[in-house]
Amino acid sequence: MAHSARRDSPELPDFSLLKRLARDQLIYLLEQLPGKKDLFIDADLMSPLDRIANVSTLKQHEVDKLYKVEYKPIVSIILALASKLSGMFFHIASCCISLVVPDVANADKAAGRFRRYKIIFTPQKFYACEAVLEEQGIFGDVTTDEWAFYLLPLDDDIISLELPEFFRDNFLAGDQRWVRTAGSALHLLHTVYGPFSKIHGIGRFSKMAYESWREQVEEGETKARQAEIGKVFLIDRDVDYVTPLCSQVVYEGLVDDIFRIKCGCVEFGTDVTSSDKRVKVMLNSQDKVFDEIRNEHFSNVFGFLSQKAKNLQTAYDKRRGMDIQQIKTFVSEELKGLKQEHRLLSLHIGASESMMKKKTKQDFQELLKTEHSLLEGFEIRECITFIEEHINRQVSMIESLRLLCLLSITENGLLPKDYRSLKAQYLQSYGVDHLLTFANLKQSGLLVEQQPGETLTVMESKVGKLVNDKAAGKLTDAFSSLAKKSHFRALSKKLNLVPKSDEEYDLRVPRDMAYIFSGAYVPLSCKLVEQVLERDGWTGLEEVTRLLNGHEFSVTGSSRAKNDAQRIVLVMFLGGCTFSEISALRFLGRERGYKFIVVTTAITNSSRLIETLLDNHA
Amino acid sequence: MMKSKPDEEDYWNSSKFKAFTFDDEDDEFSRLKESKQAVNSIRGLVEEDDDEDDVEKVSWSGEPVGSISWSVRETAASNHRTDREPAFPKINTETPPLSRSHSGYSLSSLFKGKTKGGNFQSITDTLSDSSVRLYAPELRKPKSEYKDYVSDWSPEETVHRMKQGKSVSLEKFRSLQDKLLLLDFSVAAHDGNVITAVLIYLKRTLSKEVLFRELESRQTALRHFIHYLTETRDQKLLLELLRALGRTEDMVLLQYKEHLSIADENKRRDFLKSCLSLPFPADDSAHVQDHYTLLERQIIIEATDGQAERGGKVEMFHKFPRRASIVNMPLITTLYYCCFYHYEEPEGSFSSPLNIRHTFRISEKQFFVTALAARAKLKAWSDVDALFTCRNWLGFTRKRSPVTFSRVVDILQKNSAPTQVLQDYVALVDDVTLRISLAQKLKCHDIIINTYRDLKDRQLLLGYRGKVEIGSAEERKIIELLDNQVRSSSSSSSSSSCDFLFLLQQIRWKN
Question: Angle, nearest 10°, between helix axes B176-188 and B155-163?
Fold first, then answer.
């Protein structure tokens, strides 16, 4: 709907070029395998691949059959095998490749079949994967290659690395294998749309990604060109865990929470289509109806859609009383558009209804009330009781954990008594296996017990997380983890993240980014972006960065060209970002005359975040 | 190649490079050109990487295509870096990355923990003295072997090449200090891929004891190693590592985790039993004990009930066939199951809900909620009622609940309790607004009418009249109440006679 803020926002660069590049590389790789070949593709790579090339492109390059390879529960493997002359594998990089490929290859050998295999890793191949092939004795029988498919534009202003595993690898395991990937992705953007004039960032991995990018810039040669992207902001997901743990109430976020948007595409069930067919829909700015409601608070969406429906009715009704000639023009010029709009409209109305139903069923209001109380630090006991009942009634394994994490992060850890009791009840309700999940949550700092006396805090903040001191390592297990202290209350006060609740908040006319959470909370991540852009650095935010455990930086490049590009800001989330955050940034952009481009390792939400940390399966 | 970097590194501003020299106007075209160039550059890559020998390498060369990453790294290989992009500065914060000129220093600041062995000193020495580096392999190896090496990279250069995905040979790093230098440089480079590659080499060429010892003071490398062992499922080595590091908690959890891959329930139970002796922290120890006890019991219950079901003698199983095996279900699911099928059993029985409650120390609230849901599902309303009943010291019974009555209503309603049952509990909701909204949602007319009456709100009552069926008992009741109002207003003048019964009937409407 019309938020008429600044009209002079600059134009976004054209990111379809990135797709073209990826496609060209893919074709080149296919041509490296002359003759007919079968493709075995990792299930997780199917959707991204779909965005890049279609089946006919593959057929043109002599791909005979396509297979989807699912090798769960092991992370994501993207594979290909051959039945004719040669074959190939795709893989989003994990060592687990070893567990599939040798079986296939060795089975072939045993059967006396001759097939050539090629594994193509994307976006990057790892030494570890090849080491495994070597160990299995099939190195050489199987050759490898890389498809440097770093960036997938999901929309005009969203680019994804499609690396959901980034989060767990970095923030749980502490494996930095994706740092270079992130640096390379940034480098690609810099090469095509840069040069950047200024880079701000916060977080350990942001810093590392920056370093990796800087090195790549130094190593390469860059042609001078007119910059299309001026500023860059890098942020680690663990700087702000609160935002992705909150229920989303902006339309696009809500759709993601409920139906799960995958790679910019959502599958609506029969309850939405009100027919017996499921339907897959692309959700992006091409969908004009969606484009208008995606950033809206859900409470506004119904009104908007019904108004739209009325307008549509009027447009249809126009044909009454038309003469033949007029009808002819109507049919040839307007009807198609109207039909299209009609289809979209009924789809989104269906989706809204279905979401409404689901949310009333699970007492959404009460859930939101609890979340808001947690954010505000108000009536914590009641919140704990609510969470407890949630657990007791086995409502939802993920939801319960999400609330526990939110409680822990906003309260800077649970009291030992509460922690023990809630954990025990959780294990009773959802299985003792979740001992492992709790260990993960503790390690990542999402769900922790308050330490008796906060003596560690001082030390931790002094030495940072790169503790190499032997003595310190023995102090506590928490030391070896990547967990960090959350200082949400202090941050919230400092940055005024939770507006006073007694004020009325008109969600139809949002006054700040808090509207994405019904006016209850300004997302910390986006607030940081706002503040840093306003100050053009971290000056004056010393207290805030201290509370965020440091690792902030601001660097200036040389191109000081004053043009529109300076108001195009690329925000890169390392570890995922939510649709709500994107909506908040779009709002900020409209208010301040910026255009934001969101680059993220993956689109995330509370369920995805928690699911990656579950460990109750083999 | 990295050594000859002049001062401009620090004074990037002074670069001669101008950002906009050409293609200002023809943006589209240049962009196209660029993409084309990028693709071409991939093709150009077909040139083989420098050293293609039969030396054992961390295999990275492979196909003619080499590394595709068009991230301009191939251009780095060709050394014509004449017009360098004016660079962004390095970020110098608390832990500066190894700078090339003073790497020794930054190393020491990064790896404080390593001062114990005297070997740190020597690391710095080797590093600064590159000539030593050149001769070292020669001293170690027979000449014939040396011939195989085309190039001789320092640990720093090696790490740098690995980052770019180029082929390297790690075989020549044979002294411990070389290996550690390699590791420390890879850690300082923040590239997990390279760190892991070096660790794989170290794992192959160092004894466990030495490797573990060195990893202890290198947390980042250690994390990578643990992750690598986890991904390749090298359980045995991982356990040894954790034990050596004294990370008991991680170790026992890892061992416990193994039960997930045991499909057979009896074997799983036995495995869990063996876990009981592991040094878990106190709380977890109790949880694992519960896990074992629960599985043991589930196996027994499943056997008994399965038999009973097949026997076809037990009506319950006939009426409500079991949908899944109870084995490996969470405790609360088991409790629900027992409340469903074995509610009446005496406490001595394994499958009795009370027995389960005591064995696993289930809280009153938890037990209550579960039993309520199970009995409601069976529509055993008398059981439901009995759950709430408690006698006070005078012997009166009243309804009491460890959870709020609105929650009770919610549970009952989710189990499709009829309105007659629901309204008994809706009436017990304390909060008036909540009571009304629940009653409205569940169509408990009586409660709404009574509540409006108690609120003395005539308008609301009038309004509600339109919502009930015409001619129904509810409507009659409303009319009666409203009549009462008429009566009371007409008789208000004579209301001085304070009759108790009359007052009870009379309503002083507030509107």
Answer: 40
